[in-house]
Amino acid sequence: MAEDNKFVKDGTVDYKNNPANKEQTGTWRACPYILGNECCERLAYYGINTNLVNYLKFQMNESSVVAVNNVTNWSGTCYVTPLLGAFLADAYLGRYWTIAAFSIIYVFGMTVLTLSASVHGLKPLCDDNNSCHLKGIQIGIFYLGLYLIALGTGGIKPCVSSFGADQFDDSDETEKKKKSSFFNWFYFSINIGALVASTVLVWIQINVGWGWGFGIPAVAMAIAVVSFFSGTKLYRNQKPGGSPFTRIFQVIIASFRKFKVKVPRDSSVLFETNDEESAVQGSRKLDHTEQLSFFDKAAVETQSDTIKGSVNPWSLCTVTQVEELKSIIRLLPIWATGIIFSSVYSQMGTLFVLQGNTMDLHMTNSFEIPSASLSLFDTISVIFWVPVYDCVIVPLARRITGHRNGFTQLQRIAVGLVISIFAMLIAGTLEMVRLRNVRQHNYYEMKHIPMSIFWQVPQYFVIGCAEVFTFIGQLEFFYEQAPDAMRSLCSALSLITTALGNYLSTLLVNIVTDMSTRKGGLGWIPDNLNYGHLHYFFWLLAVLSVLNFGFFLFVAKFYTYKKAIAPSS
Hints:
Blueprint: H1 27-49, H2 52-58, H3 64-78, H4 82-118, E1 125-126, E2 132-133, H5 136-165, H6 173-207, H7 210-230, H8 244-257, E3 306-307, E4 310-311, H9 319-336, H10 338-346, H11 351-357, H12 376-401, H13 409-441, H14 457-481, H15 487-516, H16 534-557
Antiparallel strand pairs: 1-2, 3-4
Helix pairs in contact: 1-5, 1-6, 1-7, 2-3, 3-5, 3-15, 4-5, 4-7, 4-15, 5-15, 6-7, 6-12, 6-14, 10-14, 10-15, 10-16, 12-14, 13-14, 13-16, 14-15
């Protein structure tokens, strides 16, 4: 009886060692708990991120440029910390325990942030004119909570999508088809959380108070933890394969040690284990590829490769280990093209919000919509396009292309990159029209000009459409093309494009602010945007996006997909 219910140390089922459990675990049985966790965690994250620029500007008394940069820096950090979480997951803890441990840190950070906005002595003191005064300790506690959240999300983001995909067996064609659909619905659940954050939570933050506005996301994060643990007995677990960085450096060092060694033309003589399973725990063997042949030197056997009868891993590596490194290197050019796209995406939480602040916020005569809530149209766009893509576009494309997913992952990413260009063109055009109204009617000192904020809806909706193609395409691409024992790491790499996109946005804002104010001018992005040229910044991003798309087409043309060797039945 004990053998029929074989569990690994984290409580999840090790179905590969006990196939009888396969029918009782994984697939869509386990996914609702993972999707519920992601929905609540993203509600918590976007509950902070969506309106953070307004909190920093009006409660923390920061200027527009400082507030924008602090938001993008924090958001960027949230997408750098996944490197740490991914390393721990792939090397030592496994994805299950990494998600569990970092979720606790996340909840603690949310609690600290809520206290900083609600407890007397910790929250900012504001007078009747909405002028707020802060002490150093108040600023310190606020940013402590904020960056604990950044650390917490670092253990969840690179693992949860991969952990969900792990519930589908790559060797089972039926399950493999369902896995592609999982990534679509995974992103759908993210946007359900974002929808609640950008509507209900933003309204609470503006109209009820920031204590409640931060407290509700903290509760949502606690619910996310409960949801995750509730599915424990249904999960399939992939065992950690040891440090991926150690294996990478072993190949590099072994290759340079054998700098003068010639690689044989017959790849079958290169070193590989005779076992059906790879020497890397939790990974299938990888077939040899011709590219980057310098690293094949690490798999060429020589007399000096053994020490007292044992293979020296810093001198001789398996073909699979070499191909792991090659896979990572091949991913990097594709990875780099995500940075500009992420810079475009980051404008929704910064400059789109500041642009909206200058417009007429009225939905009715008595109700005003917060400018940050316009991001709900990005969310609505994603919620609309995910089922349309999954149920309409894919079947149609499948008939035309013959590909089981309709498009290859690279084709899907490319479509989103093109769409993102139009998002920046629309935003820039709107700003030109807005500034023309300001000039014509002398609205320079008017806080909200008589132009409806709902003119921003198209730019949000188009970005949402681009996300469905590019971000979901990246999720699937980096999971599928990653070596089995490096999937968390490669998910973290895809997330780092978001971090670098935020940092690039910060850099661009600083550069254009410095250059446009050198001769005493107000610059492109002054505190009063009625005197600025925000459209220039949107044009700049559009031009960078066009160049980025050209580079993507070039590198995609030469990309070689990973070839895993299926174990014999």
